[in-house]
Amino acid sequence: MTQTPGRRGFLLGGAVIGAGALVSACTSNEPAAAPAATSAAAAPAPAPAGGNDAPGDKVVIGFSAPAADHGWIAAIAKNAADAAKQYSDVEFKAVEPTNDISVQISAVESLIAAKVNVIVMLPNDGAQLNQIARTATDAGIPVVNLDRVFPDKLSYRTWIGGDNYGMGVAAGHFIGKKLKDAGTSNPVILEIQGIATLPLTQDRSKGFEDALKSYGFSVTAKQDAQFTVESGTEVAANLLQAHPKIDAIWNHDDDQGIGVLAAIKEANRSEFFMVGGAGSANAMREIQADSGVLKATVTYSPTMAASAIKLARLIAQGKGMSDLLEHQVPQSITLASETITKENAAEYLPLGFES
């Protein structure tokens, strides 16, 4: 998901819980029992002294990600750093974040030269960073591939990321059920994507389309907004002008959603409801207030970065996930996409990231 500031996900499902991922302060991606402060602001709690979390062999974890010019990406970097601080046996070696492919390649080369024990990498573009990841792997340095996947499975030891298709399915079911329960026929449903050319965006759109079909509905119009506030405002304004009557909108990204909501407010439109994407704290507070069109958001939590650090530590120390029978960390872990509404926003707010 050239993937530039791409995106996002949230709570860990199934096997990931065994990794202790929910104990981390990742937004993604994040402890359900955390207090009211958001994970991006909360100090990391010490890891429990027992089992896999007990101090073990010292490991150096290299970390590389895009520039933190987006709320979700910023939360990725913070979640990773905070998770590393939980362990006395982890040295966290982060290289300068960048949106330049060649600069990220050079940065990862420096981690390989430093002979770190393991590398956690969220590539700007999985295809273009594939070779450097393979170089690290061939040099005996395991790579934990975060979010945007490398096309060559030999380039990474473990992948962890969000369920983009599942995000679309969750949004589609929320919208479809709400419209069906209201007895709405032939609804006007709009979709505001992130970056249309990215596989992650295409997966989200496909999930949304498939879920809506089960209610006999389809997307009336869609346009991409590049994951930015400015484009969110512009795209939403254009769609609002083109459609004098709207029943529902799904916006893929809560960061760009700030611009989308600004355009809706400027147009003084309120005849429809909207679903967001990613699970930002801003969106959750808006949903809690229930004073506007935003009624839900589907998660794609940055806490995945904290979980990636935990997995990298286990891999480097030759450990598996203590709650599983297998001796090794799984090769692939997909986070579940949760639907956040007014009813459960308070529970998820500690996991949100600030846009």
From TrEMBL:
Gene3D superfamilies (alphabetical): 3.40.50.2300
Bilayer-crossing regions: none
Domain (Periplasmic binding protein) ranges: 61-319
Main location: other
GO CC annotation, single: cell envelope
Subcellular location: Cell envelope
Domain of life: Bacteria
SUPFAM superfamilies to which the protein is assigned, alphabetical: Periplasmic binding protein-like I (SSF53822)
Alphabetic keyword roster: Signal
Pfam families assigned to the protein according to its UniProt record, in alphabetical order: Peripla_BP_4
GO MF annotation list: carbohydrate binding
UniProt-listed PANTHER family: D-ALLOSE-BINDING PERIPLASMIC PROTEIN-RELATED
Protein name, entry field: Substrate-binding domain-containing protein
